[in-house]
Known about the structure:
The structure holds two protein chains of two kinds.
Chain A: H1 20-24, E1 40-46, E2 52-58, H2 60-64, E3 68-73, H3 74-79, E4 119-120, E5 126-132, H4 135-143, E6 146-151, E7 177-184, H5 186-195, E8 198-210, E9 218-224, E10 229-233, H6 239-250, E11 257-260, H7 276-288, E12 292-295, H8 298-304, E13 307-319, E14 325-337, H9 344-350, E15 361-370, H10 384-402, H11 406-411, E16 422-423, E17 429-430, H12 435-445, H13 451-460, E18 464-473, E19 481-488, E20 493-497, H14 506-518, E21 525-528, H15 546-573, E22 580-583, E23 586-589, E24 595-597, H16 598-608, E25 617-624, E26 632-641, E27 648-658, H17 665-684, E28 716-721, H18 743-755, H19 769-778
Parallel strand pairs in A: 1-12, 10-11, 14-15, 20-21, 27-28
Antiparallel strand pairs in A: 1-5, 2-4, 2-6, 3-5, 7-15, 8-13, 9-10, 9-12, 13-14, 16-17, 18-26, 19-20, 19-25, 22-23, 23-24, 26-27
Chain B: E1 5-7, H1 12-21, E2 25-28, H2 34-39, E3 47-50, E4 60-63, E5 66-70, H3 75-79, H4 82-87, H5 89-96, H6 101-106, H7 109-115, H8 122-129, E6 132-135, E7 139-141, H9 142-145, E8 146-148, E9 151-152, E10 160-166, E11 170-177, E12 184-193, E13 196-202, E14 210-211, H10 213-221, H11 246-262, E15 267-270
Parallel strand pairs in B: 1-3, 2-3, 11-15
Antiparallel strand pairs in B: 4-5, 5-10, 6-7, 6-10, 8-9, 11-12, 12-13, 13-14
The structure holds flavin-adenine dinucleotide.
Amino acid sequence: MKISERAFRAVGKPLARNEDLRLITGKGRFTDDFNLPGQLWAAMVRSPYPHARIRNVDGRVALQLPKVLAVYSGADCEADGLKEINHNPVPSTKYDLKLTGKDGGAVFIGKHTLLPTDRARYVGEAVAMVVAETREAALTGAENVMVGYEELPFVVGTVEATQPGAPILWDSQTDNILVDSSFGDAAATATAFAKAAHIVSDVFHIGRVTGVPLEPRAALGDYNSETGRYTLYAGSGGAVRQKHELAHVLGVEPKDVRVLSFDVGGNFGTRNRAYVEFGLVMWAARKLGRPVKFRADRSECFLTDYQGRDLVTEVSLAIDESGKFLAMRASNLSNVGARCVSLSPLSKGSGLITGSYNIPLATLRSRAVFSNTMPTQAYRSSGRPEVTFAIERLIDKAATQLNMDRFEIRRRNLVAPSQMPYRNAVGSTYDSGEYEINMDKLLRLADWQGAAARREDAKRRGKLLGIGFANYVESSIGTPKERADLIVSPEGIEVVIGTQPAGQGHETSFAQVTADLLGVPFERVKIILGDTDVVSAGGGTHSGRSMRHASAVIALASDDLVSKAKLLAAQIFHVAEGDVEFDDGVFKITGTNITTDWFDLAKRLKELQLEDFPGGLWVRRDNEMHTPVFPNGACMCEIEIDPETGGIEITRYATVDDVGRCINPLIVHGQTHGGIAQGVGQALWETCYIDPESGQPQNGSFMDYGMPRFNNLPFFKTEISEVLSPTNPFGVKAGGEGGTTPAPAVIMSAVENALAPLGITGVEMPATPAKIWAAIQKADRSALAEYI
Amino acid sequence: MYPTKYHTPKTLSEAQKIFAAAASPAYLSGGHTLLPAMKLRLAAHSDLIDLSAIPEMHGFTQKADRLSIGAMTRHHDVANSALVAKLIPALAGCAGSIGDRHVRHRGTIGGSVANNDPAADYPAALLGLGAIIVTDKRQLVADEFFTGLYQTALQPGEILLQVEFPIPQIAAYAKFRSLASRYSVVGVFISQNNKKVRVAVTGAGAGGVFRVQSFEAALEKDFSPSALVTCSVDPAYLMADASGSSEYRANLINVMARRAVENPGKTSCYN
Lengths: 788, 271
Ligand SMILES: Cc1cc2nc3c(=O)[nH]c(=O)nc-3n(C[C@H](O)[C@H](O)[C@H](O)COP(=O)(O)OP(=O)(O)OC[C@H]3O[C@@H](n4cnc5c(N)ncnc54)[C@H](O)[C@@H]3O)c2cc1C
C-alpha cells in the first residue's frame, strides 16, 4: 500500500500540538490527579541492604499506630496465590536476534514476585507494604515495620558479577549469567582477523542512568466486589500490556482488569514494564474493600524506577591496508539487575554492532548478568547508544592508529544507498538510507569549514576546543501488532488506538495522518487513548514504533472505512456501490451532481438507522507488521575545555536525522532536542553510581544526580532528512530516539579530540570536570603552555 | 512530614516566647532548607515559628561605613537592590548566583547564614567581607560565628536579626558549581579594605567555610592574579566527594581566587 502525497494538507506541516493547551492549563490527567472516595494509601518498606535473607516481617508495632490498617509481606502475597509479573523479557519478533540461556535453552529470569519471600536482592527493593488512612500514616507505619534481615555477600559490578566466586543471586543457578548467545560467522571472522593489516580494539562501559520522569510513578487500585473487576489508574507506556500482565499476577481473566493511563509525565522506557506497586494496590484494594493509592517520592524514583544502560562492550575491528573494514568482533555484557525485566537493550544493540558501515563479517557474543542492583529496562533508544558508542569510538581510535582522517575512514566504509536493502553481518536488514549524504549535509550544517578558525580562537582564550563526530543507525522494531478503530460521527472522527504517548504528541501527528487519509480538516479528528475498556488492543509506545505502526494501521482502516462509506452512500442514494466515487473527502454519485461527505453520511445514518451498519459508520482494523526500519543520521558537536578547571562547555551541536517521512517537523525537532539533552546527559552529568564496597546507590536525589539544564546546552541545529522507508505505507522510520543514539559517542569524541594535544584517551562517562582535570594532571602538560 | 504546628508571630518577643514554650521548635525563614528536610522525614519539629512578619528583620540600611541587611531579606532582593549594587556589587552578584529563581525568591540571608551549609555562598561572603552578625542577644564577627559543618555560634532560641557588612574598596566572588546540585564545589570570596585582604572559601573545607591566610598575605603585597600562582592550600583540610577529590578542590581554590581577583566587583560563575 502506498499513499499519494497529493492529498497531504496536514502531513508534513509543523502544526502546534493539540495536547498542549490541556497540559499547560493544568487539565492533564496524570495518575495522581485521580482520587476515589474512601481511598487509602500504601507505603513500601524497602530493603536497606543490597542482599539479605528475610528472616521475618513483624508488623505488630506498625499496626498499633493510628490510622494504620494493614501490613503485608511476601508471605501474604504467596498465601493469596498472587503470581509473579510475567515480564516476557526476550524480544521475539521475527527480526529480533534470538537470545538464549547458556546452553541455548530458555532464559532464566528470576521470578518477579510482588514482595519477596526469601531475600531482598537490591537496595530499595520493597519487602513489605503498609496501608493506612493517609499517606503520612502509611509512611510512619512503614518506618515501624521490623524486618529481620540476615546480610548476605553481594555484587553490583557488571563484570564482577560474572566472575567465579561472585555471590550468586538465585539459588537454582550455578552463576549469575542468564544469557549467553553467539551470532555471526566466527570462523570466517577469525580468518579475516588473521589476514588484517591492522586490528583496533577497546573496552567500554556505558554506565547506568535513570529516566527521571517529571511525574513520579503512582498507582491507584480499586476493586468492585459486585462485578469482580479490578481497576488500576497508572501512567505507563501502554495500558493494554499492563492489563494482561496484571491479570496474570492477580489470577483473573484480562476482561476483569481495567487499566487507565491517560497523560504520562515522562516515560523514556522506565514506565514500559509493570511495577510491583501496581499489583499490590489492586490486591490490597480487594482485601480491604477500599481503593488504595501509592505515589513514589523522588528518592524512591531514583532508587526503584527501572534503570537504563549498564553495558560493557569489548570490540575489535580488523582493517586492511587501505583502511577498509574487514571484520568485527564484539562481546556485549548487559547488567539486568536483580531480576530480568527486559533484554531489549542487549538484543537491540546486538543487531546493530556494525553500525552504519559495510563490515562483511562479524561475530558477537551477547551475555546478560544478574547483580544486586535495581533491574534495568529499555531506556530511550534501548541498546543503540551503547553500540553506537562502541563502533564510533573505535573508528575514531582506528583513524588515529592508522593516521587517517576520521571522516575519510568513515566514507570509505559507509553502507552505500546502492546496497540497500543491506543485510549486515549479524543479519539485520537496513531498509533504506543515504549515509554519506547525511555526513555531507551535516558538515555544512555544522560549519566544519570554520572549525579550524574556531579552534585558534578558543586557544587564544585559553580553551581546548574539541570536535566530536558520529554516524548512527538504529532499529525500530517493537511489538508487531496494532489496532485502530475509526468512528465517524456528524461532529468528527475518532481514532481509538493502543499506543501511549508520554509527550510525543500522538494526538496531533495521528490526527494529521487520519485527516489527510480521509480528506477531512485536521481539527475534526480526535485521538482516543489510554482506557483499556475503550482501547481493546494495542502495542504501546516503545522502540520508536508508534508513528509507523499507527500510520500503517490507520491507513488500512481508512481504506476499510472508505469502502464501508461507499456502501452506505449507495444505500442512502439508492445506487450501485460502484457508482460511488471517493476523492479527498468527497463522495460523488457517478453521473449525477450528488455529493456528500463523511459527516453528512454519519448524520443521515443516525437518522435512518440502517441495519447493515450496527454501531454507525465505523471500522476496526488490526495490523501485524514485523519488518523493522532503520532510522539513521550523523551528528557533530564542539566543546571547549577549560584546562584549569576541567570544565566543559558545549558550544555547537548539529544533527542530520533520517526519520523517513516526517509527519510533523515541529514535533520531530522537539523530540530530537529532548533526545540530544538526554544523551548528552549520560555523557557529561548523569550516573546511577553504586558503591561497590557498600552496595549503596550514591545518586538518590537531584542534589547528586546531574540533569541536563538548558544553560548547559547550546542551541541545536537539527535537520530532518526524509528518505522514505519502503516498508510501510507512509514511509515512516522513527524520530523519537535519534537525538539520543549518537549523543554519548559524539560528546566523548569531542572530549578526546580536545584533549588530543595532551595525548589523553579513555576518559569515562560521565566526563565530569574533576575527571578531566585529573586526567590532565597525569598527562604530559607541556602542550598546555600555549593555553594557560 | 511529621505533624507540626505553624506559628506566625508579629513581634520578636512573641517569637521568643513561642520558642521557649515549645517541645522541639524551629525558626522558619524561607523554608528552603528546613522544609525539604522535614518533608524527607529527616527532621521533625513540634513547632515551626515563621519569622517573616517581624519588622526588625527586614530591609537595607547604610550606617556610615556599613551596610546592614535584615535577616529575612530574600536572595532576589539582595541581588536586585540598588544600594547593594552601589556599595558591594559582588555581594549582589553572589546573591543572584544562588540556586534558581524559585530559591532566590524564598531563601533568605538569615536562613542561609544560620544554616551554614558547607557549600552555601553567603557564608563565604560574610567571612570574606568580615561581616558582623547581629542577633537578639549580641553581636558576633563572622570569624567567630561559623564554627563547623552546619554549625554556628547561635545558641538554641537565639534569633539572627541582621548582617552588617563593612564596605570594602574591592570585593569579588568566583565559584565553580556542582553539575547536580549547582551549589559551589568551590567558591572564593575576596575583599580588600584599607589594605587588608580577606579570602574566604566555601564548598571545600572539611570543617566548612574558612579563610586562607597565605592567599591574603600574598594579595596584600600584590593584589593581582599572578601573586597567587605559587600559593596553595593543603588538600588534607579539604572535602572529597563525587564532585571532586581534595586535590581537585585545592586546585579550584587557587583558580577561583585568581579569577575573583581578575574580576573586581563581580561574581563569576563557572560550570
Ligand atoms: C534547590 C535549591 C538550590 C539551592 N542552591 C543554593 C546555592 O546554590 N547556594 C546557596 O548558598 N544556597 C542554596 N540553596 C539554599 C537556599 O539558598 C536557602 O538560603 C537556604 O536554604 C536557607 O535559607 P532559608 O531562608 O530557606 O532558611 P530556612 O530553611 O527557613 O532555615 C534554615 C535553618 O536556619 C534556621 N533559621 C532560619 N532563619 C533563622 C534566623 N533568623 N535566626 C536563627 N535561625 C534561623 C532555621 O531554623 C533552619 O534550621 C538552595 C536551596 C534549594 C532548595
